[in-house]
Amino acid sequence: MKIIYPVGVFPTLSETFILDQIVALLERGHDVTIISRGKPSETVFHDDIEKYGLLGKTLYIEDYTGNCDHGFSRKLFESLTGDLIHAHFAAWPAEFAMELSIVNR
Q1: For 66, phi and psi rounded to 5 degrees?
Q2: What are the CA-CA distances from residue 55 to residues 81, 92, 95, 98 (Å)?
Q3: Could you give the 3-state DSSP secondary structure of residue 40?
């Protein structure tokens, strides 16, 4: 299964539950794409970030406008396909997931 995982910032030391879930999904054979609105200010990460190559699975979209009608966002949404969109938080990740699901119906 291809899973799109929007988060505010990835990776962060404090959100181990998100890292643990992504790792568990990868270990079960799922293809995970992490969409991060921002890059971390931290310089120390959990070992699993490197072990599973998670930075290579992360798409940073700092230029995302928050509106799928803008050119950048429309192209981004049309390029992202998956079987499932999983957003942990009801702020930006949920808004992104909702817009993505509308564009890719």
Answers
A1: 85, 10
A2: 19, 20, 23, 24
A3: coil
Residue-level pLDDT at 72: 54
Beta carbons of 81 and 87 less than 8 angstroms apart: no
pLDDT tens track for 28-60 = 999 999 999 888 888 889 999 999 999 999 988
- Sign of the Cα torsion 52, 3, 70, 90 reads negative
Q: Report cis status (omega within 30 of 0) of the bond before 40.
A: no
Q: Is there a contact between 101 and 17 (Cβ–Cβ < 8 Å)?
A: no
Task: Give the number of C-alpha atoms closer than 13 A to the C-alpha of residue 47, restricted to the C-beta side.
Answer: 0
Q: What is the mean pLDDT of residues 75-96?
A: 78
